[in-house]
Design a protein that fits this description.
The protein has about 70 residues and is mainly α. The chain has two helices and no strands.
């Protein structure tokens, strides 16, 4: 069961990381343009939420790896 959860989490982390990276690009463009501060703030908040999810899932992956003796 742990191995399946580990695989699922790593896929989710990859997906979330890709979304975060796209948002980061958008934030940089908006910041450089100096306009649409509402969208800039929303994208920044969303990027932070994605990072929190990534951190939580990464922590769980480490726990699973330790249980499996991979570390």
């Amino acid at each position: 069961y742990e191995q399946e959860e580990y695989k699922k989490l790593t896929k989710e982390i990859d997906t979330l990381s890709a979304k975060r990276d796209k948002l980061q690009e958008e934030v940089m463009k908006l910041a450089n343009a100096g306009s649409d501060f509402t969208r800039l703030e929303a994208a920044s908040v969303e990027m932070g939420a994605l990072q929190d999810q990534i951190d939580n899932k990464s922590e769980r992956c480490l726990e699973l790896a330790e249980l499996a003796g991979d570390i």
